[in-house]
């Protein structure tokens, strides 16, 4: 068995692996796709101390850094079930999709999250070519340009307020007849001169010139009329879904499926820790996931040294 087993190989899992291995502990990482969301990212300009990098390049460096240590990396392995230890200090079990089962004294969950997509024509084609999901990451790329934000919940309205300070104009598009964000955010949004709010509007298509986004089409759900808007960027803010469906019976999750953790990265189960986008950590970013992975690793080590000798 492993002493520490990490599930997920994004920035959180990679950081957890390095911090754990540096304690001289036997550590394994099982990841469906090593690199995680970073693999799908083009330019990264907020990875502090690196002015500009690209997702695949950062993933190669993460992998190299992990390989500097004696870490058992099991890539292309999907975890399907977690069975917590029956008694404190016992072994937790993780069952993989290939039927194998891994055991460890401590487990760190870092399975990340995925952005909910609109699933309209053009969305995939123009992803990273005008279609964006992270305003903190990509907002500055649209400085002085026109953008739409899809979604009128808290994250959509926060994104629209944030972007209105950077871009020329923001159109906020909400499917429902009213926004769902907190009233204070809605008031702030309504006060901004360069924001237009469309409700009862269903986005039907991302339009482009073959290279980048040139606009979008939406249907007015009251009149049924179709409209086109010319713009350069589309921020999709209709939900970030944690990859935790397989953990429902193992650790406490919030209503939105985030793993509940405390400041030390501890979950509801002794000896099971979690880090990054799959958790309740506020703000989902690479540097934050790396910090959280390091925290979880140090907490796992702290847990291990307190276990009675077998
Ligand atoms: P992830 O990166 O999601 O990694 C999760 C890992 O878990 C993966 O290895 C995955 O394969 C694995 N996994 C999932 N389920 C299972 C399972 N059941 N069994 C085994 N393994 C599993 N952040 C920034 O700071 N700057 C940016 O510029 C930026 N741009 C972004 C652009 C895009 C298009 C996207 C999608 C995100 C961007 N982000 C950016 C956000 C950033 O990528 C995430 O915050 C960060 O990757 C989270 O790290 P993580 O390790 O928690 O999860």
From TrEMBL:
Claim: Repressor is one of the keywords in the record: no
Domain of life from the UniProt record: Bacteria
Cofactor(s) recorded in Swiss-Prot or TrEMBL: FAD
UniProt GO molecular function: flavin adenine dinucleotide binding; NAD binding; NADH-dependent peroxiredoxin activity; oxidoreductase activity, acting on a sulfur group of donors, NAD(P) as acceptor
Binding positions (FAD): 3-18, 267-277
Binding site for NAD(+): 146-160
Cofactor note: Binds 1 FAD per subunit.
GO annotation (BP), single: response to reactive oxygen species
Gene Ontology CC terms: cytosol; protein-containing complex
Subunit structure: Homodimer.
Protein name stated in the entry: Thioredoxin reductase
Source organism: Sphingomonas pokkalii
Parent-protein start and end of this portion: 210 to 519 of 526
